[in-house]
Amino acid sequence: MPEHPIIDPRGTRKKVLVVDDSAVMRTLIQTILEQDEQFEVAGTAANGLEAIERVAELRPDLVTMDVEMPVMDGIAALERIMAEHPVPVIVLSTHTEEGTAIAFEALALGAADFVPKNKLFGEASEPQAVDEFLMRCKAALGTRLFWRLKERFDGTDRMLRSFIGFMIDCIGKDAAVTASLNRVIDKLNGLMFSLGKDEEDRFYFAACSGTLVNRFGLVDTEMAGRRVHDAFIGDFPGQLSDLIRRAWNGEENVGFEVQCRGAVFQGMLQPLIQNGRVEEVYGVVIDLTEQQQLKDQVDYISNHDSLTGLPVRRQIPGVMGEFAARRSPFAVLCISLDQFKLVNDTFGHEVGDRLLILMARRLKSFAREPSVLFRAGNDEFVLLVPDMTIEAAEQLGLQILRSLRHPVRIDGHEIHLPSSIGICLCPDDLQEHENVLRYAHIAMAKAKEDGGNRCQLFEPSFHEQIQRRITIEQNLRKAIERKEFVLHYQPQIDTRTNRVIGLESLIRWESPEFGRISPAEFIPVAEETELIYMIGEWALREACRQNARWLEAGLFRVPVAVNLSSRQFYDQRLKENIEAVLAETGLDPQYLVLEITESMTMHVQKALPALHSLKSLGLLVAMDDFGTGYSSLAYLKEFPIDKLKIDQSFVKGIRHHPANASIIGAIISMAASLNLETIAEGVETMEQLVFLGGQGCGVMQGYWFSHPLEAEQVPAFIARFEVNADEWA
User: What positions does the domain GGDEF occupy (predicted)?
Assistant: First the structure.
């Protein structure tokens, strides 16, 4: 692949002018932009007129422009800026959506993009909206090159007309004027000439000079008197005959573009008319090869991702159309890097960029000609593969999954990035082949919803499921303020003493519209939309408040466990938030257990300091779902944790899968050697209880002992259990 060095994503920071009449909005937009090392907000403006002045003063690389502003609105300012100082402008509007009249007007006037503000701010903000906005800003930078080229190409005709006029004006002037004319044509790397016509009605060069003589294919500079057809080395550019004849017939400003000897030239012919007849034809030619190469580079950049070099999303429909025209089934695979945002948040954008490059390189190995791989979003790729069966497409998806599962090492960090793949096959008789991309994307969303790290073929029933997910997201935003969440508590039993030694808090959503919604359904949605921060903080506060009440009432004294999401765990404000909640509720930290999943510790260098920071508060930490994630056993002894929880998937398979029993035994033995308490989840049968007890696991939870209980039911259960413990043993 050729190098295209016009845009360097790691080069100089790009200057941005932020235009908005709201000081708060200017600050918010500046904060978003400066999250990315590529952007620097060089200035701000509060109205359109001020924006025009600031553009002339700062010459920014990019402008973000509000629409509704006093003095001069954004649309009027955009029109002025495009006319006076063309620069990429992204228009942001509060009350309009993409596809409305204002959006079309902005784009028609030359805006590089249009972004509704509600996608960035407010209740309707979309998942990963900030990353998407930053991507669109980077894409807009490429349009600056189009404006530069447009100025150069639009100006070429004007320049050629002016130069020919100057040539004609110089006829009969002294040698100094002619020398000045020659200097100008040399500076332009051009060629100027005049043509006459002999008695045989054939054209000849009356005069010719300039640096382009040989490059344009002419024999030499001594052209005076040489017939045009005989003046060229090799074949004569046939189109010139018709152009010259048009000019000789009196047509003015006859422009042309011609390719010769591997170069591209633009020229113009102008007749010299005296006493009503054409005496000569004057011409000028300049070399546009460099500009054409630049234009080719810009075309490449506008259609390819600057980071990975892959074609961008807008190229997909064209390739799908080509594949559909073959009348042979082709496969569409949508590939999502599920935890890419977490990597970006944890290690920074530079590591994220390098990770994307490496993952794109792995994916390219599956895109053999004529297959095509695209970067379709911040963490999404699309692979189009012709001549496929559904079985072959599924097999290909599984191969890709296995490739992406291998960890990546960057700057000493071992990064595991799970992925989800949606697959849809476009049959040869499908008319609306563009729908297939949407179907593959729906299948990918279903794969993520089902836990990720898997392939999913599209099924028509997914439409209804995805619509439900959208509805859940919309209602989830209102659920906290409507107080629709409740916590239930599942007892943890020490089977050696027959005592309840802990409670795990489990969130439940009682929706007036849908009834009880499972956490397995709404938690992934909360994770993707970042509502998990609000929900997680509510759950932490409610669990601490409830346990403080139980302690104050003297009913029992056991710690309550609260599950943390990966986003919460790596949130720099987590320790501060927990301190505030403990102070507010008055709960002694020894009665709080934070549960993290094993996969959350895969970034060891980040996880270790985060865990030490939490432990400094005096609380307890449990590692949940142990045996299902990616944590390094070499680092396990370094983690300041207190408990290991054996995942219920191992417990359920004790009878039918001997390997599960071996894994459980190994986990219990390892935990004992590290002085960690083990808790087995999902205990539902006496057989499981006996096996776990025999392996040395004394603490268990599951339906054998109790379903999760409402807060009001907990005291009675504990009192009854400890009196009648023999019933469960």
Answer: 328-460
Structure tokens at 120: 């960035």
C-alpha 37/C-alpha 35 separation (Å) is 6
User: Structure tokens of 70?
Assistant: 């006093």
At the fourth CATH level, the homologous superfamily of domain 170-292 is PAS domain (3.30.450.20)
Distances in Å between the Cα of 492 and the Cα atoms of 216, 248, 714 are 88, 100, 12
To the nearest whole percent, how much of the chain has pLDDT over 90? Answer: 29
Structure tokens at 330: 């082709």
- If residue 135 lies in a helix (H) or strand (E), which one and from where to where? helix 129-169
End-to-end C-alpha distance for the chain, whole angstroms: 69
CA–CA separation, 81 and 49 (whole Å): 10
Q: Under a CB-based contact definition with an 8 Å cutoff, are residues 453 and 405 in contact?
A: yes
User: How confident is the model at residue 392, as a pLDDT?
Assistant: 93
Reference 529, options 97, 94, 129; nearest CA is 129
Distance CA 254, CA 273 (A): 15
Q: What distance in Å separates the CA atoms of residue 679 and residue 1, rounded to the nearest whole number? A: 55
Q: Which residues of 490-515 are buried (b: 16+ CB within 10 A; e: fewer)?
A: bbbbebeebebbbbbbbbbbebeeee
Does the domain at 470-719 match CATH 3.30.2270.10? Answer given as: no
Q: Span 493-513, mean pLDDT?
A: 92
Give mean pLDDT, residues 57-70.
Answer: 89
Q: C-alpha distances in angstroms, 419 versus 342, 440, 668?
A: 13, 14, 30
Q: Where are the beta strands (DSSP E) in 198-342?
A: 203-210, 254-260, 263-274, 277-287, 330-337
DSSP 495-532: TTTTEEEEEEEEEEEEETTTEEE-HHHHHHHHHHHTTH
Question: What own/partner pairs with CB < 8 Å and gap ≥ 24 does 510-514 have?
Answer: 510/484, 510/485, 510/486, 511/475, 511/479, 511/484, 512/484, 513/475, 514/472, 514/475
Residues in the chain: 729
692, 729 contact by CB (below 8 A) = no
Q: Please answer whether residues 231 and 247 qualify as being in contact, where contact means their C-beta atoms are separated by less than 8 angstroms.
A: no
- Distance, CA of 330 to CA of 324 (rounded, Å): 8
Closest CA to 269 of 251, 295, 287: 251
List pLDDT tens digits, range 691-717: 999 999 999 999 999 999 999 999 999
- Provide the mean pLDDT of the chain: 81
Strand 380-386 and strand 413-415: the pairing is unpaired
Among 17-26, 51-60, 649-658, the least confident range: 649-658
**Nearest CA-CA partner of 458 in 486, 430, 482:** 430
Where do the structural domains in the chain lie, given as residue ranges?
A: 14-143, 170-292, 308-460, 470-719
Predicted local distance difference test score (pLDDT) of residue 126: 54
HSE-CB for 638 with a 13 A CA cutoff: 13
Residue 370, preceding bond cis, omega within 30 degrees?
yes
Q: Name residues whose C-beta falls within 8 Å of residue 123's C-beta, 6 or more positions apart in sequence.
A: 477
Rounded Cα distance between 452 and 63, Å, is: 38
Strands 113-116 and 560-563: unpaired
* CATH class for the region spanning 308-460: alpha beta
Report the C-alpha gap between 622 and 645 in whole angstroms. 7
- Tokens (6 digits) for 207: 């005069």
Closest to 523 in 3D by CA, of 473, 483, 573, 595: 473
Q: State the fold for domain 14-143.
A: Rossmann fold (3.40.50)
Phi, psi of 293 (to 5 degrees): -65, -40
How much is the pTM? Answer: 0.51
Sequence-distant (6+) residues with CB within 8 A of 633 are 670
Tokens representing 400 are 């890709």
CA–CA gap between residue 514 and residue 507 (Å, rounded): 16
Name the pairing type of β-strands 485-494 and 699-700.
antiparallel
